[in-house]
Specification:
This protein is of the alpha/beta class. It has helices at 10-19, 52-58, and strands at residues 2-4, 26-30, 43-46, 64-66. 22% of the residues lie in helices and 19% in strands.
């Protein structure tokens, strides 16, 4: 299972689109799952990278992560 953060943004949406045709199960993280508009094959969970308590629940069963976090300071990248 692959977790995609930033899944409803420009880059994340392209990543999801590329993963859907593969055999990978795709889990998308979104602050507002109701408006995600992603394919039915994608499970969308409510979550926010700035809230570690909620994020921990989203990691159960995840094998890979596409981490897109535009708020990451450049000195940590």
């Amino acid at each position: 299972m692959v977790l995609v953060t930033g899944a409803i943004g420009h880059i994340g949406r392209h990543m999801v689109s590329n993963l859907v045709p593969t055999s990978a199960a795709v889990l998308a993280l979104s602050r507002n799952p109701e408006s995600a508009g992603l394919p039915r094959a994608v499970e969308v969970l409510r979550g926010d990278l700035s809230n570690p308590e909620v994020l921990e629940e989203c990691l159960d069963g995840i094998e890979k992560i596409f981490l897109l976090w535009p708020g990451l300071p450049s000195y940590l990248a």
